[in-house]
């Protein structure tokens, strides 16, 4: 019945002769990550290019919500919104649905708490910062468990981009034991019109469920190393932040190999294997506050394999529950197609220490090609440095060499910075050929889904909107 109503609306509506008929297309088609301060408003937009009647659905964390407009306005961002996934789905009589996803990240404003740990003394220091923008300085009151904290210093900074002054007070509380460091920290900001109150609760508890947020590959001497980045998922709270003071000491990993078809659909998986690794948490961050790196080099991941992994973490209070499964493509060798790049994949010309020297001594041509696909996003981006830029590499906006060329050899005149190019389709095809030498045929290119980032100011204005990898 819904399809019939869409068709009926289409033929009874006044459509301009110049309106282009076809499936719905977004004005800004890339998925977005929204960075916004707590307590501020922000907007999610699913505007379409052509004025054709459509049907729209909105989802919050994969559950449908009641909203029929192309713009979704959140008037008051709370910590409950952090890591929330919104999605709009739109279709018309010509096709669809097309989808656009938004991930909301809440910034800690205006109260920020830093926990520093001294492993030699087994003691903690607490840094508290409270800030406000405005024309005139407000009154600040800092409290711990209802008692006023004295002895803080004040700073003032004019922010040219916002044409506003940032007023901040800082208090340093330490060295103390974990028992004395825990408690409810409060910042009260008042002016002639209102009083705003913000809380941060430092607690001792079993670590919350971890979340693997991304992964990275990097070269160290004559080897490539793998890191995953993880953080803790905070309990849902609208009015306060939570900080876990207990340090992470071990990480347990469960991992399996997964096979996918050409459409990025899972078709087979191996038996799960388990590893337990010691872990030393960085001193200046709490578990849930930052993305923590975990090196996977000792797991000896294979080339041209897609893994699924999940982790649990242990502090002196016990083990957390397992994270959700995370899809981790290993490093792929040029000449191999990648049916789904997921959160990112690195493409190498060949394995380090296994360079085939015939390309050097016989001066034979080294040649390879790979097709990389992102089925869940609207484009694929490639990142590489200036040395890779100078090689005979061609990027095509499609599935083969018949597609339009995005870039060939170098991009621009600046050879001394990292480069990034993106496709306009779900595919990017890469070809490379060169006469061999020890270095000429070696490259490492990072591919990732094309996304968009919006950063809001404390005054609900978009400070930056950019495509990123």
TrEMBL record:
<dbReference type="InterPro" id="IPR036179">
    <property type="entry name" value="Ig-like_dom_sf"/>
</dbReference>
<protein>
    <recommendedName>
        <fullName>Ig-like domain-containing protein</fullName>
    </recommendedName>
</protein>
<feature type="domain" description="Ig-like">
    <location>
        <begin position="24"/>
        <end position="104"/>
    </location>
</feature>
<dbReference type="InterPro" id="IPR007110">
    <property type="entry name" value="Ig-like_dom"/>
</dbReference>
<dbReference type="InterPro" id="IPR013783">
    <property type="entry name" value="Ig-like_fold"/>
</dbReference>
């Amino acid at each position: 019945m819904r399809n019939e109503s869409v068709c009926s609306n289409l033929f009874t509506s006044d459509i301009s002769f110049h309106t282009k008929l076809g499936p719905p297309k977004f004005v800004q088609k890339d998925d977005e990550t929204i960075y916004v301060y707590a307590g501020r408003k922000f907007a999610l937009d699913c505007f379409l290019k052509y004025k054709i009647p459509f049907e729209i659905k909105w989802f919050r964390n994969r559950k449908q919500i009641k909203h029929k407009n192309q713009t979704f306005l959140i008037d008051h961002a709370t910590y409950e919104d952090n890591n929330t996934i919104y999605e709009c789905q739109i279709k018309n009589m010509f096709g669809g649905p097309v989808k656009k996803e938004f991930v909301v990240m809440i910034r800690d404003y205006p109260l920020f708490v830093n926990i520093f740990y001294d492993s030699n003394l087994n003691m903690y220091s607490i840094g508290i910062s409270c800030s406000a923008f405005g024309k005139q300085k407000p009154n600040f009151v800092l409290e711990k468990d209802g008692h006023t904290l004295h002895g803080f210093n004040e700073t003032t900074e004019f922010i040219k981009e916002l044409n506003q002054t940032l007023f901040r007070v800082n208090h340093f509380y330490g060295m103390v034991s974990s028992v004395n460091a825990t408690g409810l920290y409060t910042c009260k900001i008042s002016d002639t019109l209102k009083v705003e109150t913000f809380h941060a609760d430092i607690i001792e508890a079993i670590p919350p469920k971890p979340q693997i947020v991304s992964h990275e590959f990097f070269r160290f001497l004559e080897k490539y190393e793998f890191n995953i980045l993880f953080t803790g998922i905070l309990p849902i709270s609208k009015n306060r932040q939570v900080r876990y003071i207990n340090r992470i000491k071990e990480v347990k990993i469960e991992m399996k190999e997964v096979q996918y078809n050409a459409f990025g659909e899972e078709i087979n998986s191996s038996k799960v294997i388990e590893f337990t690794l010691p872990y030393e948490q960085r001193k200046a961050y709490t578990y849930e506050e930052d993305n923590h790196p975990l090196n996977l080099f000792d797991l000896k991941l294979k080339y041209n394999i897609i893994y699924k992994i999940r982790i649990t973490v242990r502090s002196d209070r016990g083990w957390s529950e397992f994270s959700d499964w995370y899809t981790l493509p290993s490093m792929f060798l040029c000449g191999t197609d990648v049916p789904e790049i997921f959160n990112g994949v690195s493409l190498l010309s060949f394995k380090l220490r296994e360079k085939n020297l015939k390309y050097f001594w016989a001066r034979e041509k080294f040649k390879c090609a790979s097709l990389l696909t992102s089925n869940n996003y609207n484009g694929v981006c490639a990142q590489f440095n200036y040395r890779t830029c100078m090689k005979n590499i061609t990027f095509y906006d499609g599935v083969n060499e018949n597609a339009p060329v995005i870039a060939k050899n170098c991009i621009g005149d600046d050879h001394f910075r990292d480069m990034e190019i993106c496709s306009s389709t779900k595919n990017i095809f890469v070809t490379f050929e060169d006469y061999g030498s020890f270095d000429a045929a070696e490259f490492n290119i990072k591919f990732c889904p094309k996304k968009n980032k919006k950063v809001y100011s404390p005054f609900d204005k978009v400070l930056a909107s950019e495509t990123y990898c």
